Amino acid sequence: MALLSRIAVAAVTLLAVYYIVGSVLSYRRLRLFKGPPLASFSRFWLFWKECRGTLPHAQVAALEKYGSPARIGHDLLVTDDAELIRHINAPGSRWTRSGWYDAMRMDPRQDNVFSTRNEEAHVDLKAKEAGGYNGRDINTLEPDIDSQVGEFIGLIRKHEGKVVDFAPKVRYFVLDVLSTVAFGRPFGFMAADEDKWDYCQTSDDFTLILGLTANHSSVRWLLSQDWVQALAAPKTTDKHGIGPALAFAHKAVSERYGPDAKPRKDMLGHFVNKGLSQVQCECEAFLQIMAGTDSSATILRCAIFSLAGNPRVYAKLRAEIDGVLGQNASVRYPDVLKLEYLKVVIWETIRLFPPLFGLKEKCAPVGGDEFNGVFYPEGSTVAGCDAAIMRRKDVFGDDASFFRPERLLEGDDALRRKRMQTVEVAFGSGKYLCLGKHIAMIELHKTIVAIMRNFDFAMADPMRAVDDVLHNVHQQKNMNLVFTARE
């Protein structure tokens, strides 16, 4: 017993020494960068802000107080410089994905395209999947989205003339779009008009855990243990939560690998044709469900709610839609792309409400790297703060906190290009550009047009703010609107 006690004391002592030495080395490595005092020695500052759902706002405050880049962890810097992010993400850059991405390995069996840290493997997998996401090699993308836009218009009509919380309705719509595009049929959230399987509530709870897991290696280690996975990870046999959605996806995937499988020219068929295994497709399915929903949902919600609160922008956009598209019943995506004001309404929404707040840390290369006179030592990591990047007054003007889409059309070519390149960082850039960007753009353009052509809408209570908690994504509710049919 005494021997065990001595071993335990020795182990704890070694761990303490390891932590102290590591903290001192990390402190010295980034000692020239300023930040919250606690952040110099640990990531507890991050942990506390994440738990409170205020991490993006806290990063903005740190950048304003200490300058950019600011130190927000013993080994972590945060920046509001879009040019630095593009430099880090550029093809050929020696910067690499950090351990943050290990938490994006949703399925313990295998990495997905977002969690893959090996550069060669990531390039190879992304190349295989690209034709399915950008629609180049499939013929079902726009028709699938159109079918669910029609269902969404029908869902809004069910609540016409009544106060409706728009936030969950949009989530149902995006989940059904995602499943139709990715798996060939909708989950059925809009048909049920309810949170099937308690999926949405479970997903909201999951995003907090995901943030803590991604930001802290100790939490990643704990949650990667087999016994924790067995107790807590979603399973296809679950009756509630994320598990039933996984089961839905796995069933769709298994049908493509069964003895009676027939080739189909859709996204899943594209993955099969490019040689992805059944397990790979199942892993990508989990990523699509978790990562492909909240981003599009946030942009669509905030665009419609911002229009409802800005009569001038609302009227200008409606006039453009009516003038360019007229009474045409069928509108294709190339037709919608003629709506220049709609484009900037969407991008201005993305600027003011960047949909994803994950740190997406990248590791400085061996020997470090210098950019714009700042040296980033080997072993340090850098994250971008979209909330700060998108509201820089030196880029977007003194009214950067206002919803004013015209700013993206103003100025000379150089200013317009700089502003658009900055906003586009919300979807990543270079070798880390988001694969789902094209799908999101079709979905957003066509849905906003459909809503504007079919309904008048207004805030139910302009004095009541939307409830918005920030755990890697916007968790929104009480986005109360009233829709009435256009005459």
From TrEMBL:
Heme binds at residue 434. Keywords: Heme, Iron, Membrane, Metal-binding, Monooxygenase, Oxidoreductase, Transmembrane, Transmembrane helix. GO terms for molecular function: heme binding; iron ion binding; monooxygenase activity; oxidoreductase activity, acting on paired donors, with incorporation or reduction of molecular oxygen. Its cofactor is heme. InterPro entries: Cyt_P450 (IPR001128), Cyt_P450_E_grp-I (IPR002401), Cyt_P450_sf (IPR036396), Cytochrome_P450_monoxygenase (IPR050121). The chain crosses the membrane at residues 6-27. It comes from the Eukaryota. SUPFAM superfamilies: Cytochrome P450 (SSF48264). Belongs to the cytochrome P450 family. This is Pisatin demethylase.
